[in-house]
Write a structure and sequence with these properties.
There is one protein chain. This protein is an alpha+beta fold. 29% of the residues lie in helices and 26% in strands. It is globular, with a radius of gyration of 21 Å. The relative contact order is 0.19.
C-alpha cells in the first residue's frame, strides 16, 4: 500500500526547505514528505573539495548540484534583498509582498546562524559608483546584499536539515520519475519502485531537476512559457581592481546593452577574494565561483560572471538543451573548463600553458585547461561579452587588461516556466511549482520566498 501524505515536496533546495519550514512551524501535525534525488547534506562530499582529485570525475550523484540544500549548498550564500533581479515573483504578486517574503526568509536564515551584516547600494560611495556607471552607459541595480560565506552557508543548511528531521519525512537518494493526477491528489512514482500519494504537491526541482520538470509539464499538458538561458564566462581579476565596489556593495549587479547587437549583458555572482569552481550539470561541466567569509580562506583575486541572456521564439522551446550543448563544447575541447587570457582572445590566439604561466593573474581553478573560447561560444554572445569588458574597464580600469582570465562556459539553466496562478499553482488544483528549477526565480532569496508563498497558500486551504 502506498504511503499517504498531506504534502509532498519534490526537491530539497532552499525553496523546498522554506516550504517545509513554514508548514511545520504553523501546522506540526501535518504529514509531510520531502523527496530529494541527491544525498543528505551530511553525506554531500565532492572529491574536488575534499582534495581527492583536481578535475571533476562526474560522480553518479553530483554533490555540488544535488542533495539537501540544492545547488546553493556549496555556493557562498549571497541573498539579494531586492525585486530588481533574482526572479520573476513580482509577476505574480506585488513588489511589497515579494519584499515581505524575502525579509521573512532572511529572518529564518538568522535563526539558523546567518549574520546580521548587510551591504547596500544606498550609500554615498555606491551612489558615486552608480553615477560613474551611468556616464558610461552601465546600470547598477539596487539591492541590499547579505553574504553568508561558503562555509557558513553550508553550516546553516545543516542546521535546517537537523531542524526538519523528525518533523517531516526526508527521503534522500530517490528520484521522482513521474507524477500522476488522481481525484483526491497525486501519486509520485519514484526510481526505487515505490510510490507516494499526496493531497498537496509542491515541485521544487532546483537547477538539477529543471529539465525533468519541464518534460513532466509537457506530459501533463501544462503550458510552458518559453524561458531564457544565460550563457557566458567567469572573469577573474586581481581583487584590488574591484575593491572599491566589493568593500562597499559586496556584489555589483551591472547591466549593459551592447551596441553591436542590442543584447543585455550582466554581471552576476561577484566573489571578492574568491575561488573559481566547477559544477556538474547532468554530466556537463560548467564553471561557477564562490567566496568564504573567513578571509584566511580567500585568494588574491575576485571573480564574477558575465552572462548574455538568450530568449528564444517559436519553434524552438528548449533553452535548457541549448545551454547544455554550448557548455559541452568546452568539455570536448578542454576536457572540462577552458581558461583564456583576455589579451589572447582579442589577439585571436589560443592561450597555452606557457602564456598562462607568465600571466600576472594566477588562476584559482588550477584544473582549467588553457584554450580558445572563440571555438566554444557562439559569435553573438562572445562579441557581447568582449564589448561589456571594455565598457566595464571605463568604470573599473584594469578589467580589460591582457592578463584578465576568462573561464568558460558558465551557464545558468532555468526551466521553461509553466503557466501559474498568482499563488504559483499549475492548472492542476493543489499542484504548485516554485524556485529556480521551475523557472519562477533565479536566486536564493526569491527562491526561498516562493516556498513561503506556497506554504501559506496550502495552510489557508488545508
Amino acid at each position: 500500500m502506498n504511503k499517504k501524505y498531506d504534502v509532498a515536496i519534490i526537491g530539497a533546495g532552499i525553496s523546498g526547505i522554506c516550504t517545509a519550514y513554514e508548514l511545520v512551524e504553523k501546522r506540526p501535525d501535518l504529514k509531510i514528505v520531502m523527496l530529494e534525488q541527491g544525498n543528505d547534506i551530511n553525506e554531500r562530499i565532492c572529491p574536488i573539495i575534499a582534495n581527492k582529485t583536481e578535475k571533476c570525475i562526474k560522480c553518479k550523484k553530483c554533490s555540488i548540484m544535488k542533495g539537501f540544500g540544492g545547488a546553493g549548498s556549496f555556493s557562498d550564500g549571497k541573498y539579494n534583498l531586492t525585486t530588481e533581479f533574482g526572479g520573476w515573483l513580482n509577476r505574480y504578486i506585488s513588489d511589497e509582498k515579494v519584499m515581505e517574503l524575502i525579509e521573512y526568509v532572511d529572518r529564518i536564515n538568522v535563526k539558523f546562524g546567518a549574520c546580521e551584516e548587510m551591504y547596500s547600494t544606498d550609500t554615498p560611495v555606491a551612489r558615486s559608483i552608480e553615477k560613474k556607471a551611468i556616464e558610461n552607459d552601465l546600470h547598477l541595480l539596487h539591492a541590499r546584499v547579505k553574504h553568508l560565506g561558503t562555509e557558513n552557508n553550508f553550516n546553516i543548511l545543516k542546521a535546517m536539515n537537523q531542524y526538519l528531521k523528525g518533523k517531516i519525512e526526508l527521503r534522500c537518494g530517490v528520484k521522482a520519475l513521474d507524477i500522476v493526477s488522481k481525484e483526491d491528489g497525486y501519486s509520485i512514482i519514484l526510481d526505487d519502485s515505490t510510490m507516494v500519494d499526496t493531497k498537496f504537491l509542491v515541485a521544487a526541482p532546483g537547477r538539477a531537476g529543471a529539465e525533468w520538470f519541464s518534460d513532466t509539464c509537457k506530459k501533463m499538458n501544462i503550458s510552458l512559457i518559453n524561458n531564457q538561458v544565460d550563457i557566458g564566462v567567469r572573469v577573474e581579476v586581481p581583487a584590488i581592481i574591484l575593491e572599491d565596489i566589493t568593500s562597499n556593495i559586496y556584489e555589483a549587479k551591472i547591466k549593459y546593452r551592447t551596441k553591436c547587437y542590442g543584447n543585455i549583458v550582466r554581471t552576476f555572482c561577484m566573489n571578492p577574494y574568491g575561488h573559481v569552481v566547477t559544477e556538474n550539470v547532468d554530466g556537463v561541466i560548467t564553471v561557477n565561483g564562490h567566496s568564504y567569509s573567513d578571509k584566511a580562506l580567500g585568494s588574491s583575486n575576485t571573480n564574477f560572471a558575465l552572462l548574455v541572456s538568450a530568449e528564444f521564439t517559436e519553434p524552438f522551446n528548449d533553452p535548457y538543451q541549448y545551454g547544455k550543448r554550448v557548455a559541452s563544447f568546452s568539455n570536448l575541447l578542454g576536457n572540462g573548463i577552458i581558461v583564456q587570457r583576455f589579451g589572447d582572445l582579442i589577439n585571436g590566439r589560443r592561450t597555452n600553458k606557457k602564456r598562462l604561466e607568465k600571466s600576472f593573474v594566477r588562476p584559482t581553478l588550477t584544473s582549467a585547461e588553457p584554450g580558445d573560447l572563440s571555438y566554444v561560444l557562439p559569435k553573438r554572445p562572445l562579441d557581447s561579452i568582449i564589448e561589456m569588458i571594455y565598457a566595464l574597464d571605463k568604470l573599473f580600469p584594469g578589467i580589460a587588461n591582457e592578463d584578465t582570465l576568462l573561464y568558460g562556459v558558465e551557464v545558468k539553466f532555468y526551466s521553461a516556466r509553466p503557466e501559474l496562478s498568482n499563488c504559483l499553482e499549475t492548472k492542476y488544483q493543489n499542484f504548485f511549482a516554485i524556485g529556480d528549477g521551475a523557472g519562477v526565480t533565479r536566486g536564493l532569496a526569491q527562491a526561498g520566498a516562493s516556498g513561503i508563498l506556497v506554504a501559506r497558500e496550502i495552510l489557508r486551504r488545508i
